[in-house]
């Protein structure tokens, strides 16, 4: 839970891109930005032929079976007379036939659909890769280093936790390189998740 | 637009960091201005003469020495210590303190704004930031809802097949422009391939059915497994519906990480997986959680909301409204939902902000147009057939059904969840999810109404049959010879309708049973949609029954006045709608917001009265069978410290019956204002677990000075030991304005007045608990001190109040777990 102390959070924010949590938030925000940009195209985009349709459903009439008509016409032309082609009934019956038909104009954005599905799949893919990394590769390459141990000790000593957090926020062990900082942030995040897991899955204190 | 605001957010953040130092200083000077009277009193009360006798003398000393606030300059030099004024995890915030802090901050900005143009701009941007935040929340939650809708739709269809014209299309969009759609088989087109077509290149026969069946179950299991493992590995807090926890958080509880970035990402991702796995759950509740995460994360961009827990909760209330707004496409309903169901503190300003956030969110979702129907929800219906007064009887019957379902669901679900919480069952969350998914998928596939996604089912049930509808539910016999479109008379049911009735009845049973076991599993799961489905099925069954009854028995007195031959008297879709409202009302006990959500869904104002009748009946019935709604039941199950604002406390107990210490307990742990050393205080801190200590003039007199929080104390002492020269274990800690007179050659003293709350709430020991509970509820207190004749006697915390209420209601008081 340490990483969520406000003071510490501030420090993390200062470190900016180095921290995976903020990376995620960047990803998230850029995702939002992409989605936001998607809002713009429908206004000025050239409505491609596959993005609009006027669909007319005509039920069986006399000896003509029911039929569905699909045409790319603008909204004002979306009626039976324009869309039903060729007209299956002779001229004097057109009006009666068309009264039965139901025409509906519909719009969609294939680009939005495509982009959203691709974004979604790539986020899922990235998370799965990271999960695989955390579960398989990480335990192999990681040696029990001093920093982790220190954090573990703090973890055990629950009373001293807030004190330790205050210490850290006041300028505890300063990491030098970007890599170390990423490492530290990742460790903190892991501990946080571990704590959450204990609360939810082991102790059943919450969300059961 | 969003990019621009992100940049703005970053700038605001940076600007704040530079400005924070000076603002903190000034606020502390502001506080100083207010405690002059307290300062004056400090000198007079150093003995243990009974306080009442000393009043005259006190007054004198107040008038005499009250001007001595000479060294206020010292506080200007005091650095703000990071961490002071924040809260620990699983603690309750003090609304009063937070609100007064915000008022101070606001006052300071207003005062400053007259000084320079820059400060004026700052004050304007500060005032504007709330609305900007709402805009961002609306945009983000609307976009995320669009993402969830589109991908969930796609993944749900992925269980059945894939589009060769572009893998990203779902079934409907795959056949969108196809030339080969026929009137008879409207959802078949060559571009859409079922799995059997892809694997064994045929769609006919038993083997193809088995292949499809197998693939359906396999995909469902895969999605559920992915969902539960992502939740387990990355964000355990992302599971469940989230509304009970958000209710608790909004009432002032702190759960760190519950509204964090990882929770947001994982909840969004796994929600899609969970919905597409075909489990009996909905996305509406989790969407509220997602929107609240957006609100919380965006709060970090604004100084005003980042540092103040009370202000942040106002934002979260509005975010919850935005969440419901996108979940149901009902902006007004969202605002009312936030007001009626989730929020604890809901001033008018928050109402307007929620309104704006809900508006922006709905607009954003509408411009994404996730369902291609220019609506915000899949099950939008539009019919305007009138209803007859007599129909209120079946509507009320539906209300009774909804109430029964609600009570049954709550009772069984809570029993099951308690089992999960206390027995070995809870040790296997992944296996549990997989087993439930497997059972659901295996049972769901053979029945077409369970195989389709629940929102599609609801939309089909709400639908009013026309001549053009091809579904089995609309398979009526057309015995009339009208060539006019428009209003259709009641018709006798065909074979399709009868078989649909059987299938729906089976669906109803499956949904009722499986939802009980699904809600509360360790994946994101909401219960709005399953509840609505149960109600809609029951309503449709009743509606079709009524329709046929009216058709075949037009001579009955109840029908013959208004339902003549060839008239359209009964709309089964309306019954489905009313049933859905009743069941949802029975489970959640919502009334106003429920009706508003339902009529925003349907766009028909003429159905308000049926919906109201059903919602009210179901609430009565459900309340008669069980006191609390599902969210309150889950709050109590988990022992969250939530002080219900709706219930009256009507027992004749007094404050002294509730306060700690009890009669046989050791004395209340207090700090004295100027005689304890650092070591003494540290011993007290390490030996006790209290989260705050009253400060008194002296142990003998027990006259109250203020209240200091444990966390602030720890941080300040630690900070002083590190930063302040000469502070050692024997240093005296003092909370007065001036350091106490000390013999020479003693170590330097430590002044901690800035962390002392000088205005703690006090009641006398004979105050009735009704009033104390009311004070706690209305002011959002965290603790309240009890005095007798002016002497400090004890303390009542929020937890004590909750325990007392539980005890009075004959419940186990130890079920309240957190502080």
Automatic annotation (TrEMBL), chain B:
<dbReference type="GO" id="GO:0005524">
    <property type="term" value="F:ATP binding"/>
</dbReference>
<keyword id="KW-0967">Endosome</keyword>
<keyword id="KW-1133">Transmembrane helix</keyword>
<dbReference type="InterPro" id="IPR014743">
    <property type="entry name" value="Cl-channel_core"/>
</dbReference>
<keyword id="KW-0812">Transmembrane</keyword>
<dbReference type="InterPro" id="IPR001807">
    <property type="entry name" value="ClC"/>
</dbReference>
<dbReference type="Pfam" id="PF00654">
    <property type="entry name" value="Voltage_CLC"/>
</dbReference>
<dbReference type="GO" id="GO:0015297">
    <property type="term" value="F:antiporter activity"/>
</dbReference>
<dbReference type="GO" id="GO:0003014">
    <property type="term" value="P:renal system process"/>
</dbReference>
<protein>
    <recommendedName>
        <fullName>Chloride channel protein</fullName>
    </recommendedName>
</protein>
<feature type="transmembrane region" description="Helical">
    <location>
        <begin position="500"/>
        <end position="520"/>
    </location>
</feature>
<dbReference type="GO" id="GO:0006897">
    <property type="term" value="P:endocytosis"/>
</dbReference>
<feature type="transmembrane region" description="Helical">
    <location>
        <begin position="213"/>
        <end position="238"/>
    </location>
</feature>
<keyword id="KW-1003">Cell membrane</keyword>
<comment type="function">
    <text>Proton-coupled chloride transporter. Functions as antiport system and exchanges chloride ions against protons. Important for normal acidification of the endosome lumen. May play an important role in renal tubular function. The CLC channel family contains both chloride channels and proton-coupled anion transporters that exchange chloride or another anion for protons. The absence of conserved gating glutamate residues is typical for family members that function as channels.</text>
</comment>
<keyword id="KW-0406">Ion transport</keyword>
<dbReference type="GO" id="GO:0045177">
    <property type="term" value="C:apical part of cell"/>
</dbReference>
<keyword id="KW-0832">Ubl conjugation</keyword>
<keyword id="KW-0472">Membrane</keyword>
<keyword id="KW-0868">Chloride</keyword>
<dbReference type="GO" id="GO:0042802">
    <property type="term" value="F:identical protein binding"/>
</dbReference>
<dbReference type="GO" id="GO:0000139">
    <property type="term" value="C:Golgi membrane"/>
</dbReference>
<feature type="domain" description="CBS">
    <location>
        <begin position="755"/>
        <end position="815"/>
    </location>
</feature>
<dbReference type="GO" id="GO:0005769">
    <property type="term" value="C:early endosome"/>
</dbReference>
<feature type="transmembrane region" description="Helical">
    <location>
        <begin position="389"/>
        <end position="410"/>
    </location>
</feature>
<keyword id="KW-0067">ATP-binding</keyword>
<dbReference type="GO" id="GO:0010008">
    <property type="term" value="C:endosome membrane"/>
</dbReference>
<dbReference type="InterPro" id="IPR046342">
    <property type="entry name" value="CBS_dom_sf"/>
</dbReference>
<dbReference type="GO" id="GO:0005247">
    <property type="term" value="F:voltage-gated chloride channel activity"/>
</dbReference>
<keyword id="KW-0333">Golgi apparatus</keyword>
<dbReference type="GO" id="GO:0005886">
    <property type="term" value="C:plasma membrane"/>
</dbReference>
<dbReference type="InterPro" id="IPR002247">
    <property type="entry name" value="Cl_channel-5"/>
</dbReference>
<feature type="transmembrane region" description="Helical">
    <location>
        <begin position="315"/>
        <end position="339"/>
    </location>
</feature>
<feature type="transmembrane region" description="Helical">
    <location>
        <begin position="574"/>
        <end position="599"/>
    </location>
</feature>
<dbReference type="GO" id="GO:0008021">
    <property type="term" value="C:synaptic vesicle"/>
</dbReference>
<dbReference type="Pfam" id="PF00571">
    <property type="entry name" value="CBS"/>
</dbReference>
<feature type="transmembrane region" description="Helical">
    <location>
        <begin position="430"/>
        <end position="447"/>
    </location>
</feature>
<comment type="similarity">
    <text>Belongs to the chloride channel (TC 2.A.49) family. ClC-5/CLCN5 subfamily.</text>
</comment>
<feature type="transmembrane region" description="Helical">
    <location>
        <begin position="128"/>
        <end position="148"/>
    </location>
</feature>
<feature type="transmembrane region" description="Helical">
    <location>
        <begin position="527"/>
        <end position="546"/>
    </location>
</feature>
<keyword id="KW-0677">Repeat</keyword>
<comment type="subunit">
    <text>Interacts with NEDD4 and NEDD4L.</text>
</comment>
């Amino acid at each position: 839970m340490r990483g969520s102390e406000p003071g510490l959070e501030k420090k993390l924010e200062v470190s900016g891109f180095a921290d995976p949590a903020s990376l995620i938030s960047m990803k998230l925000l850029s995702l939002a930005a992409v989605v936001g940009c998607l809002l713009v195209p429908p206004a000025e985009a050239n409505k491609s032929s596959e993005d609009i349709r006027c669909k007319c459903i005509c039920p069986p009439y006399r000896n003509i079976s029911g039929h569905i008509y699909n045409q790319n016409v603008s909204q004002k032309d979306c009626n039976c007379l324009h869309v039903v082609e060729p007209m299956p009934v002779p001229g004097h019956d057109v009006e009666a036939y068309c009264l039965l038909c139901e025409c509906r104009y519909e719009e969609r954005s294939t680009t939005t659909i495509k982009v959203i599905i691709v974004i979604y799949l790539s986020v899922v893919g990235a998370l799965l890769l990271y999960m695989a990394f955390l579960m398989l590769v990480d335990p192999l390459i990681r040696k029990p280093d001093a920093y982790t141990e220190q954090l573990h000790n703090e973890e055990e000593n629950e009373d001293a936790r807030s004190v330790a957090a205050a210490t850290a926020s006041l300028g505890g062990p300063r990491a030098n390189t970007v890599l170390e900082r990423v490492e530290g942030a990742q460790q903190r995040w892991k501990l946080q998740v571990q704590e959450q897991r204990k609360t939810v899955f082991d102790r059943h204190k919450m969300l059961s | 637009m969003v990019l621009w605001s992100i940049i703005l957010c970053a700038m605001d953040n940076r600007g704040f960091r530079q400005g924070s130092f000076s603002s903190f200083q000034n606020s502390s000077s502001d506080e100083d201005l207010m405690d002059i009277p307290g300062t004056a009193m400090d000198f007079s009360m150093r003995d243990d003469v009974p306080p009442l006798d000393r009043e005259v003398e006190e007054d004198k000393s107040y008038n005499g020495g009250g001007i001595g606030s000479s060294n206020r300059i010292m506080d200007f030099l005091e650095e703000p210590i990071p961490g002071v004024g924040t809260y620990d995890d699983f603690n309750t915030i003090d609304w009063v303190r937070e609100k007064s802090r915000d008022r101070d901050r606001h006052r300071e900005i207003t005062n400053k704004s007259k000084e320079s143009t820059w400060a004026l701009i700052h004050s304007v941007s500060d005032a504007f930031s709330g609305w900007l935040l709402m805009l961002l929340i609306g945009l983000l939650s609307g976009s995320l809802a669009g993402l969830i809708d589109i991908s969930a739709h796609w993944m749900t269809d992925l269980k059945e097949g894939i589009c060769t014209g572009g893998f990203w299309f779902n079934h409907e969009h795959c056949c969108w422009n196809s030339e080969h759609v026929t009137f008879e088989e409207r959802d078949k087109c060559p571009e859409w391939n079922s799995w059997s077509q892809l694997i064994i290149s045929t769609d006919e026969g038993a083997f193809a059915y088995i292949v499809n069946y197998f693939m359906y179950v396999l995909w469902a299991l895969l999605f559920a497994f992915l969902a539960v493992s992502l939740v387990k590995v990355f964000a355990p807090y992302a599971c469940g519906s989230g509304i009970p926890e958000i209710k608790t958080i909004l009432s002032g509880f702190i759960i760190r990480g519950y509204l964090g970035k990882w929770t947001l990402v994982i909840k969004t991702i796994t929600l899609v997986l969970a919905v597409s796995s075909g489990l009996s759950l909905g996305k509406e509740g989790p969407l509220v959680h997602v929107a609240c995460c957006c609100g919380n994360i965006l709060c970090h961009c604004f100084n005003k909301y980042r540092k103040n827990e009370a202000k942040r909760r106002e934002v979260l209330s509005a975010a919850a409204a935005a969440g419901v707004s996108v979940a149901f496409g009902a902006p007004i309903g969202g605002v009312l939902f936030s007001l009626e169901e989730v929020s604890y503190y809901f001033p008018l300003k928050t109402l307007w902000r929620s309104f704006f956030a809900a508006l922006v969110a709905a607009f954003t979702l509408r411009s994404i147009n996730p369902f291609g129907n220019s609506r915000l929800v899949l099950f939008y219906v539009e019919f305007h057939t009138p209803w007859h007064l007599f129909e209120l009887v079946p509507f009320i019957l539906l209300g009774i059904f909804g109430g029964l379902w609600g009570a049954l669901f709550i009772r069984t679900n809570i029993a099951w969840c308690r089992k999960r919480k206390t027995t070995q069952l809870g040790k296997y969350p992944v296996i549990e999810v997989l087993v439930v998914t497997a059972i659901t998928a295996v049972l769901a596939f053979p029945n077409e109404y369970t195989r389709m996604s629940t929102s599609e089912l609801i939309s089909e049930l709400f639908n009013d049959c026309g001549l053009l509808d091809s579904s089995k539910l609309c398979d009526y016999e057309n015995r009339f010879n009208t060539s006019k479109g428009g209003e259709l008379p009641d018709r006798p049911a065909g074979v399709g309708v009868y078989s649909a009735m059987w299938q729906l009845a089976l669906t109803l049973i499956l949904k009722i049973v499986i939802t009980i076991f699904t809600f509360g599993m360790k994946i994101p799961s909401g219960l709005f949609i399953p509840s609505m489905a149960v109600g809609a099925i029951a309503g449709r069954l009743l509606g079709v029954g009524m329709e046929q009854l009216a058709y075949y028995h037009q001579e009955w007195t109840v029908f013959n006045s208004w339902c003549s031959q060839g008239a359209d008297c009964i709309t089964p879709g309306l019954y489905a709608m009313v049933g859905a409202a009743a069941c949802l009302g029975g489970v959640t006990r919502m009334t106003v917001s429920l009706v508003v959500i339902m009529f925003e869904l349907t766009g028909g104002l003429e159905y308000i009265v049926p919906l109201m009748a059903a919602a009210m009946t179901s609430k009565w019935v459900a309340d008669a069978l069980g006191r609390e709604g599902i969210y309150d039941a889950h709050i109590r199950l988990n022992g969250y410290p939530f002080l219900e604002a709706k219930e009256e406390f009507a027992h004749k107990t007094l404050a002294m019956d509730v306060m700690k210490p009890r009669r046989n307990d050791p004395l209340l742990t207090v700090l004295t204002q100027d005689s304890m050393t650092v070591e003494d205080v540290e011993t007290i801190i390490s030996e006790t677990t209290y989260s705050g200590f009253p400060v008194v003039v002296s142990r003998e007199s027990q006259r109250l000075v203020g209240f200091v929080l444990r966390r602030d104390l720890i941080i300040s002492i630690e900070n002083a030991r590190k930063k302040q020269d000469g502070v050692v274990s024997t240093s005296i800690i003092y909370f007065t304005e001036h350091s106490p007179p000390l013999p020479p050659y003693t170590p330097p003293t430590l002044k901690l007045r800035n962390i002392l709350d000088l205005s703690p709430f006090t009641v006398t020991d004979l105050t009735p608990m009704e009033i104390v509970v009311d004070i706690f509820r209305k002011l959002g207190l965290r603790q309240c001190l009890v005095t007798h004749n002016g002497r400090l006697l004890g303390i009542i915390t929020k937890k004590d109040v909750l325990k007392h209420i539980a005890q009075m209601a004959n419940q186990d008081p130890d079920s309240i777990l957190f502080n």
